[in-house]
Amino acid sequence: MKTISVPEKEQLSFGTQSILESVEKKMGKIPNLYATIGYSSSALKSMLETEASLAHDSSFTAKEREAINLIVSQVNECDYCLAAHTTLAKMRGFTEEDTLEIRKGSFSEVKLDAAIKLAHSIANNKGNAGNGALENFFNAGYDEKALVELTALVALRSFTNYVFANTQIPIDFPLAQAI
């Protein structure tokens, strides 16, 4: 089988290089997964624009989005995204114990728990959340906008999970604790 390597910035298109330079300024590094997605400038640009759009006028805080990222990455068994989003979740105020609880599919805060359970159900059931998870989500106080945004977050994180699954590039974040 062909081994996929993380490209050097110079190996990528000028458009991708420009995007990755912005990522590096913001994050202080270019994550291996972003560089690898950069083989396709349009895929990288679309991913980053979607992430930025979902952060702008979102039903979810940055901390809540990290919880959704964690549960989806757990369902998809993506070691890269679990490592990256555990690191980011801790930067957003979650403890190590919180990240493990989220990855196990629940959380002590009722409203966030409903979002985690819905994200888990969507990711685990190929998009079909099931009436119970949806009802719980709406009963927790979320609306249709939040449902669409959560579905977009699940799809976006699944994309990065799938890129890692098919490339197995080196993980450049501290590994997440196994559960």
UniProtKB/TrEMBL annotation:
SUPFAM superfamilies attached to this UniProt entry? AhpD-like (SSF69118)
InterPro entries membership: AhpD-like, AhpD_core, CMD-like
Q: Which domain of life is it from?
A: Bacteria
Residues of the Carboxymuconolactone decarboxylase-like domain: 47-103
Q: What terms describe the molecular function in GO for this protein?
A: peroxiredoxin activity
Q: A Pfam family matched by this chain, by name?
A: CMD
Query: Which keywords has UniProt assigned to this entry?
Result: Oxidoreductase, Peroxidase
Please report the name of this protein according to its UniProt entry. Answer: Alkylhydroperoxidase
Q: Which organism is it from?
A: Chryseobacterium taiwanense
